[in-house]
Design brief:
The chain has three domains: about 1-85 and about 180-210, D-Maltodextrin-Binding Protein, domain 2; about 90-175, D-Maltodextrin-Binding Protein, domain 2, CATH 3.40.190; about 210-275, Alpha-Beta Plaits, CATH 3.30.70. The protein has eight helices and 15 strands. It has helices at about 15-20, 55-60, 70-75, 120-125, 160-165, 190-210, 225-230, 255-265, and strands at about 1-5, 35, 45-50, 65-70, 80-85, 90-95, 110-115, 135, 150-155, 170-175, 180-185, 210-220, 235-240, 245-255, 270-275. The strands form three sheets. A six-stranded mixed β-sheet has the order 2-3-1-4-11-5. Strands 8-7-9-6-10 form a five-stranded mixed β-sheet. The model has no long low-confidence stretch (mean pLDDT about 95). Bound molecules: phosphoribosyl ATP (PRT) and zinc ion.
Length: about 280
Protein backbone atom coordinates (compact mmCIF):
# COMPACT_ATOMS: atom_id res chain seq x y z
CA UNK A 1 0.00 0.00 0.00
CA UNK A 2 1.42 3.37 -1.11
CA UNK A 3 0.54 6.47 0.93
CA UNK A 4 0.10 9.81 -0.81
CA UNK A 5 -0.30 13.12 1.02
CA UNK A 6 -2.36 15.82 -0.65
CA UNK A 7 -3.57 19.22 0.55
CA UNK A 8 -6.71 18.98 2.66
CA UNK A 9 -8.27 22.25 1.59
CA UNK A 10 -6.74 24.98 -0.50
CA UNK A 11 -5.55 25.82 -3.96
CA UNK A 12 -4.04 22.39 -4.65
CA UNK A 13 -6.77 20.16 -3.22
CA UNK A 14 -9.24 19.82 -6.05
CA UNK A 15 -6.72 19.37 -8.84
CA UNK A 16 -4.69 16.87 -6.80
CA UNK A 17 -7.80 14.78 -6.26
CA UNK A 18 -8.91 15.21 -9.88
CA UNK A 19 -5.53 13.94 -11.10
CA UNK A 20 -5.81 10.82 -8.93
CA UNK A 21 -9.34 10.23 -10.21
CA UNK A 22 -8.29 10.74 -13.84
CA UNK A 23 -5.81 7.93 -13.28
CA UNK A 24 -8.92 5.77 -12.79
CA UNK A 25 -8.25 5.46 -9.08
CA UNK A 26 -11.54 5.53 -7.19
CA UNK A 27 -11.50 7.58 -3.99
CA UNK A 28 -13.98 9.42 -1.83
CA UNK A 29 -13.42 13.15 -1.41
CA UNK A 30 -11.49 14.01 1.73
CA UNK A 31 -14.01 16.48 3.15
CA UNK A 32 -13.73 16.28 6.92
CA UNK A 33 -11.47 13.25 6.68
CA UNK A 34 -7.86 12.68 7.63
CA UNK A 35 -7.39 9.75 5.27
CA UNK A 36 -9.16 7.47 2.85
CA UNK A 37 -8.39 4.35 0.85
CA UNK A 38 -8.65 3.96 -2.90
CA UNK A 39 -11.08 1.21 -3.87
CA UNK A 40 -9.30 -0.22 -6.90
CA UNK A 41 -5.60 0.66 -6.45
CA UNK A 42 -3.20 0.08 -3.51
CA UNK A 43 -3.21 3.76 -2.51
CA UNK A 44 -4.02 5.45 0.78
CA UNK A 45 -4.64 9.20 0.73
CA UNK A 46 -3.73 11.50 3.62
CA UNK A 47 -5.29 14.96 3.68
CA UNK A 48 -2.87 17.48 5.23
CA UNK A 49 -1.84 21.15 5.30
CA UNK A 50 0.45 21.76 2.37
CA UNK A 51 3.29 23.06 4.58
CA UNK A 52 3.42 19.73 6.44
CA UNK A 53 3.61 17.55 3.32
CA UNK A 54 7.40 17.72 2.61
CA UNK A 55 8.20 16.90 6.25
CA UNK A 56 5.75 14.01 6.44
CA UNK A 57 7.12 12.53 3.21
CA UNK A 58 10.71 12.93 4.45
CA UNK A 59 9.73 11.19 7.72
CA UNK A 60 7.90 8.40 5.86
CA UNK A 61 4.51 9.21 7.39
CA UNK A 62 3.56 9.40 3.70
CA UNK A 63 5.55 7.86 0.85
CA UNK A 64 4.77 10.50 -1.77
CA UNK A 65 2.95 13.83 -1.88
CA UNK A 66 1.59 16.57 -4.09
CA UNK A 67 2.66 20.08 -3.12
CA UNK A 68 3.85 23.37 -4.64
CA UNK A 69 7.52 23.43 -5.69
CA UNK A 70 7.79 26.66 -3.66
CA UNK A 71 6.95 24.76 -0.46
CA UNK A 72 9.30 21.87 -1.34
CA UNK A 73 12.25 24.23 -1.87
CA UNK A 74 11.44 26.26 1.24
CA UNK A 75 11.31 23.24 3.55
CA UNK A 76 14.76 21.97 2.44
CA UNK A 77 13.98 18.31 3.14
CA UNK A 78 15.89 15.45 1.56
CA UNK A 79 13.28 14.40 -1.02
CA UNK A 80 12.90 13.32 -4.62
CA UNK A 81 10.98 15.60 -6.98
CA UNK A 82 9.42 13.00 -9.26
CA UNK A 83 7.18 14.93 -11.66
CA UNK A 84 6.02 18.43 -12.47
CA UNK A 85 2.23 18.31 -12.57
CA UNK A 86 1.42 21.46 -14.53
CA UNK A 87 -1.24 22.97 -12.24
CA UNK A 88 -1.23 25.72 -9.57
CA UNK A 89 1.37 27.60 -11.54
CA UNK A 90 2.68 30.73 -9.86
CA UNK A 91 5.95 32.52 -9.21
CA UNK A 92 7.84 33.65 -6.15
CA UNK A 93 8.86 37.24 -6.70
CA UNK A 94 10.38 40.25 -5.03
CA UNK A 95 8.20 43.35 -5.01
CA UNK A 96 8.73 46.94 -3.87
CA UNK A 97 6.41 49.97 -3.48
CA UNK A 98 5.49 51.16 -6.96
CA UNK A 99 6.96 54.64 -6.51
CA UNK A 100 10.47 53.24 -5.89
CA UNK A 101 12.91 53.91 -8.72
CA UNK A 102 14.13 50.30 -8.74
CA UNK A 103 17.26 49.81 -10.84
CA UNK A 104 18.46 46.41 -9.74
CA UNK A 105 19.09 44.10 -6.81
CA UNK A 106 21.54 46.53 -5.16
CA UNK A 107 18.47 48.46 -4.02
CA UNK A 108 17.88 45.64 -1.53
CA UNK A 109 21.27 46.01 0.21
CA UNK A 110 20.67 46.63 3.93
CA UNK A 111 16.88 46.75 3.42
CA UNK A 112 14.16 44.80 5.25
CA UNK A 113 12.35 42.12 3.26
CA UNK A 114 9.16 40.51 4.57
CA UNK A 115 8.38 36.99 3.37
CA UNK A 116 6.90 33.59 4.24
CA UNK A 117 9.79 32.06 2.26
CA UNK A 118 12.92 33.02 4.25
CA UNK A 119 15.05 30.09 3.08
CA UNK A 120 14.47 30.55 -0.65
CA UNK A 121 14.83 34.34 -0.33
CA UNK A 122 18.07 34.00 1.66
CA UNK A 123 19.57 31.55 -0.81
CA UNK A 124 18.71 33.81 -3.73
CA UNK A 125 20.14 36.97 -2.15
CA UNK A 126 23.30 35.17 -1.03
CA UNK A 127 23.87 33.89 -4.56
CA UNK A 128 23.53 37.44 -5.86
CA UNK A 129 25.82 38.89 -3.17
CA UNK A 130 23.09 41.03 -1.56
CA UNK A 131 22.89 41.52 2.23
CA UNK A 132 19.37 42.22 3.48
CA UNK A 133 17.38 41.57 6.65
CA UNK A 134 14.70 38.94 6.16
CA UNK A 135 11.58 39.14 8.33
CA UNK A 136 9.55 35.98 8.32
CA UNK A 137 5.81 36.57 8.49
CA UNK A 138 3.24 33.88 7.91
CA UNK A 139 0.42 35.72 6.14
CA UNK A 140 -0.63 39.00 4.48
CA UNK A 141 2.97 39.68 3.46
CA UNK A 142 1.79 42.22 0.90
CA UNK A 143 0.70 44.71 3.55
CA UNK A 144 4.17 44.84 5.20
CA UNK A 145 5.60 47.79 3.19
CA UNK A 146 2.40 49.83 3.62
CA UNK A 147 2.56 49.60 7.43
CA UNK A 148 6.27 50.33 7.54
CA UNK A 149 7.32 46.78 8.44
CA UNK A 150 9.50 46.23 5.38
CA UNK A 151 11.03 47.94 2.33
CA UNK A 152 10.25 45.03 0.04
CA UNK A 153 8.49 41.67 0.06
CA UNK A 154 9.08 38.26 -1.44
CA UNK A 155 5.79 36.47 -2.07
CA UNK A 156 3.79 34.23 -4.37
CA UNK A 157 2.35 36.03 -7.39
CA UNK A 158 -0.19 34.64 -9.79
CA UNK A 159 -2.23 37.30 -11.63
CA UNK A 160 -0.35 40.16 -9.94
CA UNK A 161 -3.54 41.88 -8.76
CA UNK A 162 -2.72 41.49 -5.03
CA UNK A 163 0.52 43.41 -5.57
CA UNK A 164 -1.20 46.15 -7.54
CA UNK A 165 -3.99 46.63 -5.02
CA UNK A 166 -1.35 47.03 -2.30
CA UNK A 167 0.63 49.62 -4.24
CA UNK A 168 3.51 47.26 -5.04
CA UNK A 169 5.34 46.26 -8.23
CA UNK A 170 7.06 42.99 -9.06
CA UNK A 171 10.77 43.56 -9.69
CA UNK A 172 12.49 40.15 -9.66
CA UNK A 173 11.22 36.61 -10.17
CA UNK A 174 13.07 34.11 -7.97
CA UNK A 175 11.21 30.94 -8.86
CA UNK A 176 8.61 29.60 -11.30
CA UNK A 177 6.50 27.15 -9.33
CA UNK A 178 3.78 24.57 -9.96
CA UNK A 179 2.43 21.51 -8.19
CA UNK A 180 4.95 18.65 -8.10
CA UNK A 181 4.90 15.01 -7.07
CA UNK A 182 7.52 14.40 -4.38
CA UNK A 183 8.70 11.11 -2.93
CA UNK A 184 10.69 9.63 -0.09
CA UNK A 185 14.11 8.44 -1.23
CA UNK A 186 13.96 5.03 0.43
CA UNK A 187 10.78 3.25 -0.58
CA UNK A 188 10.46 -0.54 -0.46
CA UNK A 189 10.53 -2.48 -3.73
CA UNK A 190 6.79 -3.08 -3.42
CA UNK A 191 5.99 0.61 -2.91
CA UNK A 192 8.28 1.56 -5.78
CA UNK A 193 6.40 -0.81 -8.03
CA UNK A 194 3.07 0.82 -7.15
CA UNK A 195 4.67 4.24 -7.59
CA UNK A 196 5.89 3.28 -11.09
CA UNK A 197 2.32 2.26 -11.99
CA UNK A 198 0.97 5.55 -10.66
CA UNK A 199 3.58 7.62 -12.56
CA UNK A 200 2.81 5.66 -15.73
CA UNK A 201 -0.86 6.60 -15.38
CA UNK A 202 -0.13 10.26 -14.54
CA UNK A 203 2.09 10.52 -17.63
CA UNK A 204 -0.71 9.09 -19.78
CA UNK A 205 -3.21 11.57 -18.32
CA UNK A 206 -0.83 14.52 -18.79
CA UNK A 207 -0.01 13.64 -22.40
CA UNK A 208 -3.69 13.24 -23.17
CA UNK A 209 -4.40 16.72 -21.73
CA UNK A 210 -2.03 18.47 -24.13
CA UNK A 211 -2.94 16.47 -27.23
CA UNK A 212 -6.20 16.41 -29.14
CA UNK A 213 -7.67 14.04 -31.66
CA UNK A 214 -8.43 15.94 -34.85
CA UNK A 215 -10.79 14.96 -37.66
CA UNK A 216 -11.33 17.00 -40.81
CA UNK A 217 -12.72 16.61 -44.29
CA UNK A 218 -10.88 17.65 -47.45
CA UNK A 219 -10.99 17.20 -51.20
CA UNK A 220 -8.57 14.44 -52.20
CA UNK A 221 -6.32 16.80 -54.17
CA UNK A 222 -5.75 18.93 -51.02
CA UNK A 223 -4.78 16.12 -48.67
CA UNK A 224 -1.08 16.39 -49.44
CA UNK A 225 -1.05 20.16 -48.61
CA UNK A 226 -2.98 19.64 -45.41
CA UNK A 227 -0.65 16.90 -44.21
CA UNK A 228 2.26 19.30 -44.77
CA UNK A 229 0.62 22.00 -42.65
CA UNK A 230 -0.17 19.78 -39.68
CA UNK A 231 2.94 19.40 -37.52
CA UNK A 232 3.76 15.86 -36.50
CA UNK A 233 1.02 14.49 -38.72
CA UNK A 234 3.30 12.07 -40.51
CA UNK A 235 0.91 9.29 -41.28
CA UNK A 236 -2.65 10.34 -40.60
CA UNK A 237 -5.50 7.95 -41.17
CA UNK A 238 -7.22 8.87 -44.44
CA UNK A 239 -10.73 7.49 -44.89
CA UNK A 240 -12.76 8.01 -48.10
CA UNK A 241 -16.07 9.80 -47.62
CA UNK A 242 -19.30 8.70 -49.28
CA UNK A 243 -19.03 11.88 -51.36
CA UNK A 244 -16.87 11.19 -54.45
CA UNK A 245 -13.42 12.87 -54.37
CA UNK A 246 -13.46 13.66 -50.62
CA UNK A 247 -11.70 12.09 -47.63
CA UNK A 248 -11.65 12.40 -43.88
CA UNK A 249 -8.25 12.84 -42.13
CA UNK A 250 -7.73 11.70 -38.53
CA UNK A 251 -4.69 12.39 -36.40
CA UNK A 252 -3.37 13.38 -32.98
CA UNK A 253 -1.79 16.79 -32.56
CA UNK A 254 -0.57 19.13 -29.87
CA UNK A 255 -3.43 21.51 -29.16
CA UNK A 256 -1.22 24.63 -28.92
CA UNK A 257 0.13 24.04 -32.40
CA UNK A 258 -3.36 23.47 -33.77
CA UNK A 259 -4.55 26.99 -32.90
CA UNK A 260 -1.51 28.47 -34.67
CA UNK A 261 -2.35 26.83 -37.98
CA UNK A 262 -6.15 26.78 -38.08
CA UNK A 263 -6.37 29.55 -40.72
CA UNK A 264 -3.90 27.93 -43.08
CA UNK A 265 -5.77 24.65 -42.71
CA UNK A 266 -9.00 26.29 -43.80
CA UNK A 267 -7.24 28.06 -46.70
CA UNK A 268 -5.82 24.72 -47.80
CA UNK A 269 -9.38 23.41 -48.08
CA UNK A 270 -10.04 21.66 -44.77
CA UNK A 271 -13.72 21.59 -43.76
CA UNK A 272 -15.77 20.23 -40.89
CA UNK A 273 -12.83 20.32 -38.49
CA UNK A 274 -13.46 18.48 -35.21
CA UNK A 275 -11.07 18.65 -32.25
CA UNK A 276 -11.83 15.99 -29.64
CA UNK A 277 -10.31 15.44 -26.18
CA UNK A 278 -8.28 12.29 -25.59
CA UNK A 279 -8.83 10.49 -22.30
CA UNK A 280 -5.53 8.58 -22.03
CA UNK A 281 -2.49 8.48 -24.26
CA UNK A 282 0.04 5.66 -24.02
CA UNK A 283 3.19 6.14 -26.08
O1 LIG B 1 -4.04 25.61 4.59
P1 LIG B 1 -2.79 25.26 3.85
O2 LIG B 1 -1.52 25.58 4.61
O3 LIG B 1 -2.84 23.83 3.34
O4 LIG B 1 -2.80 26.16 2.51
P2 LIG B 1 -2.10 27.57 2.19
O5 LIG B 1 -3.07 28.64 2.49
O6 LIG B 1 -0.73 27.65 2.78
O7 LIG B 1 -1.85 27.42 0.63
P3 LIG B 1 -2.80 27.79 -0.60
O8 LIG B 1 -3.89 26.79 -0.71
O9 LIG B 1 -3.15 29.23 -0.60
O10 LIG B 1 -1.74 27.58 -1.79
C1 LIG B 1 -1.19 26.35 -2.05
C2 LIG B 1 -0.18 26.49 -3.19
O11 LIG B 1 -0.82 27.01 -4.36
C3 LIG B 1 0.97 27.46 -2.96
O12 LIG B 1 2.01 26.90 -2.17
C4 LIG B 1 1.43 27.73 -4.38
O13 LIG B 1 2.29 26.69 -4.82
C5 LIG B 1 0.15 27.65 -5.19
N1 LIG B 1 -0.40 28.95 -5.62
C6 LIG B 1 -0.79 29.24 -6.91
C7 LIG B 1 -0.63 30.04 -4.88
C8 LIG B 1 -1.16 31.02 -5.73
N2 LIG B 1 -1.25 30.48 -6.97
C9 LIG B 1 -1.52 32.33 -5.18
N3 LIG B 1 -1.97 33.19 -5.95
N4 LIG B 1 -0.44 30.30 -3.56
C10 LIG B 1 -0.79 31.51 -3.06
N5 LIG B 1 -1.30 32.52 -3.81
C11 LIG B 1 -1.61 33.80 -3.08
C12 LIG B 1 -0.36 34.63 -2.76
O14 LIG B 1 0.18 34.25 -1.52
C13 LIG B 1 -0.88 36.06 -2.75
O15 LIG B 1 -1.45 36.37 -1.50
O16 LIG B 1 -2.44 34.65 -3.83
C14 LIG B 1 -1.99 36.00 -3.76
C15 LIG B 1 -1.45 36.46 -5.09
O17 LIG B 1 -2.35 36.17 -6.12
P4 LIG B 1 -2.57 37.19 -7.34
O18 LIG B 1 -3.37 36.42 -8.33
O19 LIG B 1 -3.27 38.38 -6.81
O20 LIG B 1 -1.18 37.53 -7.88
ZN1 LIG C 1 0.16 26.30 3.75
Amino acid sequence: MLRIAIQKSGRLSQESLDLIKECNIKVNDGKGKLKSNARNFPLEILYLRDDDIPGYVADKVADIGIVGLNVVLEKEKNLLTLLRLGFSKCRLSLAVPKEIDYRGLEFLNNKNIATSYPNITNRFLKEKGIRADIHEISGSVEIAPGIGLADAICDIVSSGSTLISNGLKEVETILHSEAVLIGNKELSAEKNKTLDQLIFRINAVQKARSFKYILLNAPNDKIEDIINILPGMKSPTVVPLAMEGWSSLHSVINEDKFWEIIDSLKQAGAQGILVVPIEKMIM
